[in-house]
Specification:
The protein has 300 residues and is an alpha+beta fold. Helix content is 31%, strand content 30%. The protein has an eleven-stranded mixed β-sheet, covered by helices on one side. The protein starts with a strand and ends in a 7-residue tail after the last strand.
């Protein structure tokens, strides 16, 4: 015997001639090449099918939670963001190669109205997009430009202040006297200041102290505002003092100090804790600015 078989591989007998040994080596090498070629071909075809197969292509994009942003607009954006472009006008969209985290970042970047978004992949061909939109709480205006502000103090949308929907919204219109122009998506005030404004509005209404919708802010950095009552006098507030405490001080001041002279009042300044500085209208009373320090029965 010249050849011995071991696991289907030809092994040289020690007595074989050099020519026979060479032929066996060539035959073994050719077998390996054929095996490698077939393996590479199989992997290539499998990889092509795996990447470009319609089985793993995203066919369903489900949008949930949106109210103002059109579902079709989000769906089109997700579809475009999930497609990978290749040279030669080739493109592919594959379930396994879609990054849900990247999609979430891209959607928040492209849609300033989105506050939170979650992308869930459902095998093999579905994407579920859960959206939480920003809620308009304050309208901030500087010059002719107005932006809607959310609870975090982000100016997420530029809007026409004369729009009918806005007029019916009941939002606080904050006039920023600094005139600083802002970019859409920019955080321009603290969440605490937004919360203070909403709380102040609620407590003024509860105490039946009726004020105009336009509030004045000399500067958002100072976080101080001027509110005009419908009776014709101004109130100065600071967010450094709790809104509930400020309203209690104002109520006590009006009931015990001003009483029936409210139409004569020019302003009440509550920017100093436990104090109310006020001025009466000059034509009714010529005295200089007075200050009154009041304390409630609750010892605030």
């Amino acid at each position: 015997m010249i050849f011995l078989k071991r696991k289907d591989k030809k092994v040289l007998d020690r007595t074989a001639s050099p020519t026979e040994k060479k032929m066996v080596r060539v035959e073994n090498r050719a077998s390996r090449y054929v095996f490698y070629f077939l393996a590479i071909s199989f992997l290539s075809v499998s990889g092509y099918v795996f990447i470009f197969s319609d089985f793993l292509k995203i066919k369903n994009i489900i949008i949930e939670g949106n109210e103002k942003i059109a579902s079709e607009e989000i769906r089109e954006k997700v579809d475009n963001l999930s497609i990978r472009r290749l040279p030669g006008n080739l493109s592919w969209q594959n379930y396994f190669f879609i990054s849900d985290n990247q999609l979430e970042q891209d959607l928040k970047r492209d849609f300033k109205k989105i506050n939170k978004v979650e992308v869930v992949k459902i095998f093999p061909e579905t994407l579920l997009v859960k959206v939480e939109e920003r809620k308009a709480l304050v309208l901030r205006c500087a010059g002719d430009t107005c932006h809607l502000i959310d609870e975090e103090g982000v100016a997420y949308e530029e809007i026409d202040p004369e729009s009918e929907d806005l007029k019916k919204s009941g939002l606080i219109k904050l006039i920023d006297k600094s005139g600083r122009q802002v970019e859409t998506g920019e955080k321009i005030m603290t969440a605490e200041f937004v919360s203070f404004l909403l709380s102040l509005k609620e407590k003024l209404e509860a105490e039946k102290i009726y004020v105009k919708d336009e509030w004045i802010a000399p500067s958002l950095i100072a976080e101080e505002i001027t509110v005009s009552s419908l009776e014709g006098w101004n109130i100065y507030f600071s967010s450094r003092i709790d809104s509930e405490k400020s309203i209690r001080m104002l109520k006590l001041f009006l009931n015990e100090e001003i009483k029936d002279m409210r139409e004569k009042l020019e302003y009440a300044d509550l920017r100093v804790e436990n104090k109310v500085y006020y001025r009466l209208k000059p034509e009714e009373d010529s005295k200089e600015e007075d200050a009154v320090e009041t304390e409630s029965q609750d010892s605030f």
